[in-house]
Task: structure prediction
Amino acid sequence: MPKGDFSPGGWSTRSDISLEVDRISGVGGPEYPQLHIPIEFTLIPSEKKGKIKAYSLLWLRSSLHLENIKIGEGLSDPLAEYSWSPFNSRQIYIENPLDHYRIEKIEERRQGDIQFRLSGSALIAEHPSIAKAGPNEQQEYKRDVENFTTGNFNISFSIPQSHWVDKILPGFGYGKVKLIEVPIPEKIVPDTFQKALTELQESQRYFVEGDYDKVVAHCRSAVQLIPEARSIDLSGTDKPSFNDKVKKFLEQNLSILTNSKREFIENIIKATWNLSSIPHHPSSSLGYFNRADAEAIMLVTTALLVYVGKLLKQGEEK
Result:
């Protein structure tokens, strides 16, 4: 459990601040994403010469930092209703509003687990000193407030990749790819396009996890299914390659295209398949593709499925 420093002004009281990382969550969805951080605060009454002085936490403001870059600010709800039990720990929920841009920047910097720092200040009430109760007596505290002051705190914590990916990002609505009108023609080899969409979903999952080689590998599997969408005549071609299949598929099934358009789409399919085949080579080194590579290849793969699917659908309707 990460713990941090908290200094309530110049008072000689002991105070604790901590949080449980596995209780941090993402909330709000894509419309209003927030990082929900529960903080455990404890203000211990100070004692001096038989007198005891209590303090209450009333309000808290925080800043969230990633690599010393401020990425958000959070506020707690007013805590006045809790202020008359100063000797107890209080769990405070801080909502740190984010947006898609900042979440994307966090993902660009994230390598496995992610390290944050939460800093801020708290409004604290000081109550009048009273005599310390005896060993068998219940300690009483006055509700009067003598003074208000602020205290500062800092706490660093690391969120494991598994918790960030499985629990927090979904709460932001991040990573939910909506494929734009990917038509599934009726007169195709059964389940071919559905298998391609499944490959894209796997690609997106690995993208969120940061395994960009696997992102590209699944894109390759999706592209490879394109010429299998319909049966093609490969007679006269000895041991047809993927390029052969693509060429014949386009010639025999997408005759509605002009030669220049057919050549264009053929070149994109072949180039995408060739580039995305690198992770399948035994000699390829891990980490060949970075985030920008994976994102571009995933977008191109999606566009190819959309385009080919629409063309096949148009062909059926004629």
The chain has two domains: 3-160, 177-317. Confidence is low (pLDDT under 50) at residues 81-86.
